[in-house]
């Protein structure tokens, strides 16, 4: 955002600007001009202070003459690293005198010395924490500006800071301690009273005291600040000298063409070119010397390179790889090879850029390409051809170097003949794991000679040996850190290319690297140490001077020296590099041999149909099929043998499977589960059962794919399904039917195996009669927790006999016992790691299915697993060890040879052996599996009994109205209601008893509640709070108060739902509300009114309880008279910090009497004392964990409300809690221990039986017992709760006094202008 110093500029810039605080000034002013310069510079401080006060945002301020050459916020840079550390409240640039110095001569010892004066033209300030200190520092600087108007912001800020630094504790504005750059000055001082500040690197962020010539030569330069000259023309000259003057116009910024003036002919600064880019052969006939240039659409190349970074099309898929760019290279003569590479990359949903070796190709490819650095060459060249091959190969190095220089991105480079069979960047693979570790600056593929070898014969001992030569056709380089070393290695390789044009990139890169490895410390380009693959060679060497490099697995990323036959048999193969042959036709032959030639055209890559040529009839390689997929029964009448095939829209099945991975429709909801795919299975005869399963999954906003057991169903379901592997079967089959049941059940195993082989995804498989009541993947549940732990390759549900048992009678000791048999109708399998073991287990189960077609998947899977468990090391398919549920059985065994498996909780995921009556009474139930009956009608009956039959149709799943049949009148199961929801007063006149119901748009309430969870409108803002829902409550009579609350919440970007206490309000508010549980009440009620106040207040408890039961969400509840001045959930605040810690099940505000006190007089010793009573108008409750305890506390409060209708929620909740706190272990509803605020009271008690609760800061979240005058003076105030008065007009008065009455209407909340009268 731009602080506009005058109204004319603010009007011109529009939305991206605001009018600065202070006196307007429209003239450009030279440094130290008599008046204007000081007015402008001090207004910058005033404006920053006002933004800090208003938003609690952290701020980076940059003068407009401080221009960024590359991304200044990368985590590898000093500023980016320090901001991310969260350790510093102020980060600044040094002030260095006089001008004209060389940056290379700057004494390193000045860095991190505490200054008297420093620069204020580029700095970071932490507005989101320690606001009392941070804002005070800026207030002091503004006071100094007002007292000394003849001095600028720099003088006033730093003189003010130094004066504050020297204050005594008795003086106003005292700050206890100033800690500079991690010195040990402030030991024993309370951290909340310390200002931490430090300087950013002057070699990265270069000040204008350093000459432009020396700055240009500084490889670390990220920005240049054109200081030490007078007037903007002189500043422009300095920026032109350092190549940081763009000659662009505003159309590049806004995307809107400027038609009133002639735009500059140049819209972007080109990337720098390597030195001597023309090969010394001088062969100009191949094309002119070129440099990297921007795209024709006006975007600079840097912008386009950054846009394609992240490795995947979906930028939320692997956010940890957001700064990694995938590059390949080609020229026109190699286009067919490039197209093949791009087709496979497209199917894997990768994102990339192409280095075009000639202009014709760059024009053809357009936005996804750029013209490579160096001499153009358009002909395809065989390996080692006299000139062209060397020109092309060395240009690849030049281009990678220039991209790193310009963008500071990490790069993965792949030759176009190195084709990906499956995702090469999974964290389970060597390359993906090493990139994510952040330990290596260079990761490469080994060079292995001679050709024709078998990959299976490769000696494992060569892996991770330090090489003399290696491959340069597929590698990773960390362009975002240690740039001086990394770029120097590539500069050396380019220099060797220029000196030895008769040799290719591989020879020159590795000869240059080895030569650099052998340099002495006195030689130019010296690198202190080269550490290969975590060896201990560089101990004691400064890590910033070490190059870490290592080789990726040659069994995963297979080189062409290995025969195609052996590669095809290698289960670990992820890519094949068609080397060791001459010319692209021979390379094509090798890729065809390993089934990595796509026969596709560019329409698959671009999504635009190619009309000038006939596209290939085959657009996708089908997934491999299991061996012997036809059951030995030979019952062909059921349908033909099939295999997994791509969708009709041209997307490969792999792409569609990956698109549905992540478990949730919203892919940002649980990014840690992004590689987990939910599968179910059905055939046409079982469609009604499938539809029911899908309806419940839809309401929970899950995402999935269906294995269709016959073609008819696959055609019907379309994109969300695929044809299962094996023999087709269209009839619904009862358990243990003679043939069909076994065919279907074993096909499920075959299909899961094929999906794992093709995608390396983890899989959760659920039968369609295993229906989810609530989200089964929450981290608070056994399955969700175990998946996230990454410890288990297989998680299953127990098999328990006989049927008709009560779940409450299940012996807890059976949980986690190692089984002989278990259920295969609901399980998780880790397809993304230990593929050799995991896939082998499923291959064995398929083999058993083929040998024993008269038995189902469950019998064959578990008999096969038990047989494998008992194998000896000399037998085929041996697995070294099976570890069950963290037993200590496999100590000393290599972890890569261990299968870890464990059972999920049978009380959460309930099997049909347990009666439906007992399941309904089990508060932990998340799903019910309708087993132990024959035929789908009987299964339907069981699901109806447990209220898991939806009576919905496919329109709820697809969002498309079904017109050929009458949909069910009921589209959603309402949330359960609390017991005895009608108050015992019997006052029916206020409205009928209600329960939580779905929205009119067909979305279930559960879906809407989940949609609003996350606390913020922007769901990417605080992903750690994604399972927290903000609720408030109101009725029609209280609408004005609610509107005020919502206006402030809107301004803070919050998201919430309203519990509407009457139908009229719920109808009025629409999608953002739901009808509260209990008796309707539409009148506003003063505190303690005879009936209404108690009805409303207890209904709030009922509704919170029901929302927790239905969603397992954590909840923050706020009364509508508790208004937020600033963001209440910042991690720097007590509530935000405690929620994020995950330590507390309940966080509340204290109850303090009497009214009219001053907040400043509150005794700090009351904070964190265990209370008898506290406030229930603003609290957090963890609905997503320890549900049995948390829900019980609220159930008790509702019971107390029902028994004591003359008392409100606060009295009933806390009296109930205190009574529960005092219960004995023999009493119903006993909770083993209540731990208050980290006390040591519950030592030795099982944590699952402990309720942790604590109070938020009363100085941040201020209660109405404190006067509005004292609250206004409290710098820590985040919210004010207008309590201790009667009636909403009096509450409004208090909120007006603390400047928390918005005078807004609903149009600010909804974005829709209000055209009719409001309610009430």
From TrEMBL:
InterPro entries: UDP-D-xylose:L-fucose_XylT. One of its GO terms (molecular function) is glycosyltransferase activity. Residues 259-297, 611-649, 963-1001 are annotated as: Disordered. Keywords: Transferase. GO terms for cellular component: Golgi apparatus. PANTHER family: UDP-D-XYLOSE:L-FUCOSE ALPHA-1,3-D-XYLOSYLTRANSFERASE-RELATED (PTHR47032:SF1). The keyword Cytoplasm does not apply. Transmembrane segments: none annotated. This is Nucleotide-diphospho-sugar transferase domain-containing protein. The keyword Zinc does not apply. Residues 259-281, 611-633, 963-985 have a biased composition (Low complexity).
């Amino acid at each position: 955002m731009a602080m506009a110093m005058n109204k004319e500029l603010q009007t011109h810039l529009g939305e991206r600007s605001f009018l600065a605080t202070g006196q307007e000034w429209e003239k450009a002013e030279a440094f130290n001009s008599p008046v204007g310069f000081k007015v402008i510079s001090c207004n910058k401080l005033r404006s920053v202070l006002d933004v800090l006060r208003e938003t609690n945002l952290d701020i980076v301020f940059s003068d407009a003459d401080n221009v960024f050459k590359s991304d200044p916020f990368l985590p590898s840079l000093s500023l980016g690293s320090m901001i991310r550390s969260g350790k510093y409240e102020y980060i600044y640039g040094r002030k260095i005198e006089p001008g004209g110095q060389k940056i290379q001569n700057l004494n390193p010892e000045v860095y991190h010395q505490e200054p008297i004066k420093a620069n204020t033209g580029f700095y970071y300030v932490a507005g989101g924490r320690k606001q009392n200190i941070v804002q005070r520092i800026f207030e002091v600087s503004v006071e100094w500006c007002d007292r000394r108007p003849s001095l600028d912001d720099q003088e006033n800020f730093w003189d003010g800071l130094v004066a504050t630094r020297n204050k005594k504790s008795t003086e106003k504005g005292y700050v206890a301690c100033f800690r500079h750059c991690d010195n040990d000055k402030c030991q024993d001082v309370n951290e909340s009273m310390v200002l931490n500040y430090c300087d950013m690197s002057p070699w990265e962020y270069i000040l204008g005291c350093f000459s432009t010539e020396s700055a240009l030569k500084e490889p670390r330069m990220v920005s240049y600040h054109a200081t030490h000259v007078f007037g903007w023309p002189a500043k422009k000259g300095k920026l032109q000298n350092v190549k940081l003057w763009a000659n662009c116009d505003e159309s590049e910024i806004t995307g809107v063409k400027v038609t009133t003036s002639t735009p500059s002919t140049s819209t972007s600064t080109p990337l720098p070119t390597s030195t001597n880019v023309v090969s010394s052969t001088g062969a100009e006939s191949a094309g002119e010397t070129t440099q990297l240039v921007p795209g024709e659409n006006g975007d600079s190349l840097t912008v386009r390179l950054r846009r394609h970074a992240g490795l995947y099309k979906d930028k939320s898929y692997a956010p940890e790889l957001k700064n990694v760019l995938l590059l390949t290279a080609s020229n026109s003569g190699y286009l067919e090879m490039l197209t093949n590479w791009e087709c496979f990359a497209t199917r894997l949903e990768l994102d990339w850029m192409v280095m075009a070796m000639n202009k014709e190709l760059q024009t053809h490819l357009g936005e996804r390409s750029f013209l490579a650095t160096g001499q153009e060459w358009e002909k395809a060249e065989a390996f080692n051809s006299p000139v062209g091959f060397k020109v092309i190969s060395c240009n690849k190095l030049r281009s990678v170097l220039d991209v790193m220089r310009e963008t500071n991105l990490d790069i993965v480079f792949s030759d176009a003949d190195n084709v990906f069979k499956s995702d090469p960047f999974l964290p389970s693979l060597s390359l993906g794991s090493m990139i994510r570790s952040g330990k290596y600056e260079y990761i490469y593929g080994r060079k292995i000679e001679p050709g024709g070898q078998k990959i299976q014969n490769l000696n494992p001992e060569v892996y991770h040996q330090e090489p003399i030569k290696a491959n340069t056709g597929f590698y990773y380089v960390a362009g975002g850190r240690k740039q001086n070393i990394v770029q120097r290695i590539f500069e050396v390789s380019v220099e060797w290319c220029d000196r030895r044009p008769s040799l290719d990139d591989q020879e020159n890169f590795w000869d240059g690297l080895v030569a650099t490895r052998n340099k002495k410390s006195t030689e130019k380009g010296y690198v202190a140490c080269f550490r290969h693959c975590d060896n201990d060679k560089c101990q004691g060497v400064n890590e910033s001077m070490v190059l870490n490099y290592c080789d990726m697995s040659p069994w995963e990323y297979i080189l062409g020296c290995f025969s195609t036959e052996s590669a095809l048999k290698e289960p670990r193969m992820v890519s094949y590099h068609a080397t060791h042959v001459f010319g692209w036709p021979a390379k094509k032959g090798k890729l065809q041999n390993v089934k990595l030639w796509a026969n596709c055209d560019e329409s698959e890559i671009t999504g635009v149909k190619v009309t000038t040529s006939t596209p290939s009839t085959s657009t996708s390689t089908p997934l491999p099929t299991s061996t012997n997929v036809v059951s030995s029964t030979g019952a062909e009448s059921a349908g033909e043998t099939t295999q997994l095939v791509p969708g009709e829209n041209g997307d490969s099945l792999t792409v569609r499977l990956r698109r549905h991975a992540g478990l949730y429709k919203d892919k940002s909801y649980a990014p840690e589960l992004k590689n987990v795919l939910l599968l179910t299975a059905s055939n046409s005869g079982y469609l009604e059962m499938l539809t029911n399963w899908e309806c419940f999954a839809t309401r929970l906003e899950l995402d999935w794919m269906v294995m269709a057991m016959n073609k008819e169903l696959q055609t019907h379901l379309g994109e969300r399904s695929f044809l299962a592997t094996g023999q087709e079967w269209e009839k619904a089959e009862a358990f243990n039917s003679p043939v069909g049941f076994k065919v279907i059940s074993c096909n499920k195993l075959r299909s899961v195996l094929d999906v794992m082989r093709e995608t390396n995804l983890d899989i959760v498989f659920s039968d369609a009669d295993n229906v989810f009541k609530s989200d089964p993947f929450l981290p608070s549940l056994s399955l969700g927790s175990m998946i996230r732990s990454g410890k288990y390759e297989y998680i299953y549900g127990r098999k328990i006999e006989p049927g008709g048992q009560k779940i409450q009678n299940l012996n807890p000791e059976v949980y986690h016992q190692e089984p002989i048999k278990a259920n295969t109708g609901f399980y998780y399998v880790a397809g993304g790691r230990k593929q050799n073991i995991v896939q082998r287990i499923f291959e064995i189960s398929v083999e058993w299915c083929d040998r024993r077609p008269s038995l189902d998947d469950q019998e064959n899977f578990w008999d096969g697993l038990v047989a494998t468990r008992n194998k000896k090391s000399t037998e085929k398919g041996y697995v070294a060890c099976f570890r069950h549920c963290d037993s200590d059985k496999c100590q000393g065994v290599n972890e890569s040879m261990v299968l870890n498996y464990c059972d999920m909780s049978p009380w959460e995921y309930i099997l049909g052996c347990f009666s439906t009556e007992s399941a309904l009474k089990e508060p932990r139930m998340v799903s019910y599996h309708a087993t132990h009956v024959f035929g789908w009608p009987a299964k339907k009956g069981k699901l109806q009994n447990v209220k898991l039959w939806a009576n919905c149709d496919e329109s709820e799943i697809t969002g498309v109205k079904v017109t050929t049949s009458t949909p069910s009148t009921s589209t959603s199961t309402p949330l359960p209601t609390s017991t005895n929801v009608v108050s015992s007063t019997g006052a029916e006149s206020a409205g009928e008893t209600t329960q939580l119901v779905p929205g009119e748009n067909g979305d279930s309430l559960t879906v809407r509640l989940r949609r609003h969870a996350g606390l913020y409108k922007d769901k990417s803002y605080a992903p750690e709070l994604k399972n927290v829902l903000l609720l408030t409550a109101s009725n029609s009579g209280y609408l004005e108060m609610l509107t005020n609350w919502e206006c402030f919440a809107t301004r803070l970007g919050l998201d919430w739902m309203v519990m509407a206490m009457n139908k009229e309000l719920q109808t009025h508010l629409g999608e953002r509300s739901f009808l509260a549980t209990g008796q309707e009440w539409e009148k506003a009620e003063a505190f303690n009114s005879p009936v209404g106040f108690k009805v409303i207040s207890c209904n709030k408890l009922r509704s919170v309880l029901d929302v927790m039961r239905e969603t397992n969400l954590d909840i923050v509840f706020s009364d509508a008279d508790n208004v937020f001045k600033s963001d209440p959930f910042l991690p720097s605040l007590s509530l935000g910090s405690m929620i994020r810690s995950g330590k507390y099940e309940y966080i509340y505000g204290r109850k303090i009497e009497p009214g009219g006190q001053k907040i400043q007089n509150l005794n700090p010793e009351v904070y964190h004392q265990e209370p008898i009573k506290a406030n229930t108008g603003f609290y957090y409750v963890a609905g997503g964990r320890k549900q049995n305890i948390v829900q019980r506390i609220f159930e008790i409060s509702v019971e107390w409300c029902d028994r004591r209708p003359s008392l409100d929620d606060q009295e009933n909740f806390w009296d109930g809690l205190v009574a529960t706190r005092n219960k004995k272990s023999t009493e119903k509803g006993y909770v083993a221990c209540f731990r208050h605020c980290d006390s040591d009271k519950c030592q030795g008690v099982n944590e699952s039986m402990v309720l942790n609760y604590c109070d938020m800061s009363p100085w941040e979240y201020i209660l109405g017992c404190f006067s509005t005058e004292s609250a206004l003076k409290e710098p820590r105030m985040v919210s004010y709760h207008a309590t201790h008065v009667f009636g909403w007009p009096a509450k409004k008065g208090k909120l007006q006094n603390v400047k928390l009455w918005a005078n807004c209407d609903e149009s600010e909340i909804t974005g829709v202008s209000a055209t009719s009268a409001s309610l009430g």
